[in-house]
Amino acid sequence: MNVFNYGIDSLTPRQALDIAGGDLKATLNKDAVDKINLSRQAIDEIVASKAVLYGVNTGFGPLCTTLISPEKTVELQINILKSHSVGVGESISPEISRLMLILKLHALSQGFSGIALSTLQRIQLLLEKNIIPVVPSQGSVGASGDLAPLAHLFLPLIGLGSVHYKNSIVATAEVYQKENLTPVTLGPKEGLALINGTQFIAAYAVKILERMHNCLETADIIGAMTLEAQLGSMKPFHPDLHKLRPYQGSVLVAHRMRALLTGSEMLDSHQNCDRVQDPYSLRCMPQVHGASRNAWLHLKELLHCELNSVTDNPIVLDAQNTISGGNFHGQPMALPLDYAAFAAAEIGNISDRRTYLLLEGKNGLPLLLMKNTGINSGFMLAQYTSAALVSENKTLCYPASADSIPTSLGQEDHVSMGSISARKTYSIIDNLEKILAVELTCAAQAFDFRRPLKSGTILEACHEHVRSRINHAEEDRVFSEDIEAAISIVRDKELTQIAGDISLKEKIDLNGEFRSLFDLE
Fold first, then answer.
1. Within a 10 A sphere around the Cβ of 514, how many other Cβ atoms?
2. I need a labelling partner for 35 at 20 to 30 A (CA). Which of 57, 242, 278, 346 fits?
3. Whether the predicted pLDDT of 384 surpasses 80
4. Residues annotated as part of the active site
């Protein structure tokens, strides 16, 4: 696809990221414009008929029975953006704010929201000119959607708030003056359509899906390196074993392990040893990594529905048919995001266990992965950092969706807290990348002690790449510098890129029968 059509095409997480990154053009085609104009015309007819419609000629929330005069309807829409802009805390990243604009533009362009074409064109212009609203991270309870974040997101439409502009945060009024732009005049229902919806939750979910996917792929690679260094067994990855319990994630991970370990001299060197079983953190990688992949897949499937849904309120079918419902409620995303949080935390938990194994001084490895210990502490404290991060993730695993605090004077008496589910899961993935980086640092050190034996092509290339950034440690040094380099390797998808390039070049099948199921499309 060379062009994505807002409101017409089905949006995938990959496409959303590509649009946000400038790798895919997105537009409003004639079909979308026609639907948008018909929906706007329906609102104009409703206003002309003086029929009562929530948010058009009534107040909001508990003020839904308060009628608003026709001459005050424009002021009503402006005031809702002002009054609902109550967010606090650090601002979200410009990338997530950009994703919010893209997802909202797609939802509103489907023609059920009564939004004016000119308003959507201004949102499109902000994206094209990279004028990205500043949005505080806290303040949404995830029902009536993400009211506060979306209000901040669209303050710039009316000339208020601040934006990311040319690598600085600038007042919108100042940017409008430089760009020769004037504020948008909102018509009936437009303010409400802009702030009702789940685009804060969904934008975070898109990034969570991307980053968690990288962590899962990277964890397989690092886990395989650790198993090699521990002289572990390949038998737990045998396909016949996993046919007897064929969870998709487990079958995939077992397949990947076999592919990553094929051709290893390290594995061949101990075929006749007397070890019967490896610890769980080595032999149960298909079951544990696989279970987290199943959770990722669940999030992907539900997110695809969310990205292509209309989540504002009321919904405008036509001038005679409007529905005040609850499509803005964040519960459908809150639950899978909490599930993803547990799944991401568990990848960190098992990674830390593997790091611990590497330090025990067993199976021919030196104690603490350094020959001259005593005067040197080796990698002892690196595992402390990993343990601290694992513990922190456990505290973040309390499901936000298990809570509900009534708001809007009881009108909104059950809320999802999905925005908190999203932010917590995002933080867990931040920590997971660091936990994996600690294991990577230790696994690379352990690999060195197996020389001159070599691993398979992919793991050898990954180890070589790590060694291009982090030297083998003969004695103690400031290991935080090594860990930071390893975090960069993990976060920037460097190992997955290496594995992908080699698998294509050498025709190594890393994904088996689930090639398309577990991608971002």
1. 17
2. 57
3. yes
4. 54
